[in-house]
Specification:
The chain is mostly beta strands and 299 residues long. Helix content is 12%, strand content 32%. Among the domains are: 92 residues, Immunoglobulin-like (Sandwich), CATH 2.60.40; 117 residues, no CATH class. It is built from 3 helices and 16 strands. It has a 5-stranded mixed sheet with strand order 1-9-3-6-5, with no helix packed on it. A hairpin with a 5-residue loop joins strand 7 and strand 8.
């Protein structure tokens, strides 16, 4: 009996001697999170979502970053002054900010434990999300999807405005939104042909079958110009101006942004003449390309 008891106590002591690796919990509440590093040691940040990591180019080879399976692996190869990293959710576009700094290891210093980032406050589940409704299957255009609590044009316009004007850490997450590439040769002269403005596309995003394109408008005339969405030409679902009027050319108020929402296609395919293509050859005489012999034979 004593032998068995001694063996059990030995096993318990052996398990107690095993190192237990703790995990530091950091709560994301839209404030930058401090993640110290030690030169030559790898530290894991668990985020439990697919993220893209934005690293300042000034770090060069001093920081190695790898991201996979909801975990970000950070290894400092040299001392790093306080620097900010951006973790962006690949699905919703939401940002999490990390403030890192790397110092050499001190004698006897224990390895840094992994970090797990959790949401500090429950996000508003209704904004831009689909409602849980038993009547979702009755929607004609989306038989397998529940309707959203907020109309998509409102959601996209708000998201685009936040990305352009608000600090990135305050941008509300929007699940399912995707960034859309804009062509370099996108000509917007036909967008507002009656207005003395110069239009330049800035950025575009897509959610479901709808697109939002942020277009910068710069006043090229004198006096004040009141903006009216009815002056815009194209197959546009909604148009929202950041400011309702433009000041004289050269003033601080001569530029604004308009957010254009289109359905089923981007802005480039929603402008004239893309939405009403025509063949000018149909107005030419039928025998314009025939030879004289063919014309005589036809007579």
């Amino acid at each position: 009996m004593k032998t068995l008891l001694s063996a059990c106590l030995g096993m318990l002591l052996a398990f107690a001697a095993l190192p237990i690796q703790a995990v530091e919990i950091l709560r994301w509440e839209r404030l930058p999170l401090a993640v110290p590093l030690v030169v030559g040691q790898e530290r894991i940040v668990f985020i439990d979502r697919n993220v893209r990591v934005g690293v300042p180019a000034a770090l060069g080879d001093r920081l190695r970053v790898q991201s996979t399976g909801g975990a970000v692996y950070l290894r400092a190869n040299d001392t790093i002054e306080p620097t900010r990293l951006q973790l962006q959710d690949a699905d919703s576009g939401a940002l999490i900010l990390l403030d890192i700094a790397a110092e050499p290891a001190r004698e006897g210093q224990a390895p840094l434990e992994p970090v797990r980032i959790v949401e500090g406050q429950a996000a508003d589940a209704r904004y831009g999300q689909r409602a849980a409704s038993s009547d979702a299957g009755r929607v004609a255009d989306e038989p397998n999807k529940a309707p959203r609590e907020t109309p998509i044009p409102v959601v996209l316009t708000r998201y685009a405005a936040q990305n352009l004007y608000a600090p990135l850490r305050t941008v509300e997450p929007l699940r399912g939104v995707m960034r859309v590439n804009l062509g370099r040769d996108l000509n917007l002269e036909i967008l507002a042909p009656t207005l003395p403005v110069r239009a330049t596309a800035l950025a575009a995003w897509r959610l479901d079958d709808q697109y939002v394109t942020a277009v910068r408008l710069t006043h090229t005339g004198m006096g004040w110009l009141t903006l009216d969405p009815r002056a815009l030409q194209g197959d546009i679902l909604t148009a929202t101006f950041q400011h309702e009027a433009l000041g004289p050319k050269g003033s601080a108020e001569d530029t604004t942004v308009v957010y254009l929402v289109t359905r089923g296609r981007g802005l480039a395919a929603s402008l004239l003449p893309a939405i009403a293509r025509f063949d000018p050859a149909v107005n030419l005489p039928a025998c314009v390309n025939r030879t004289d012999k063919e014309a005589d034979h036809a007579q």
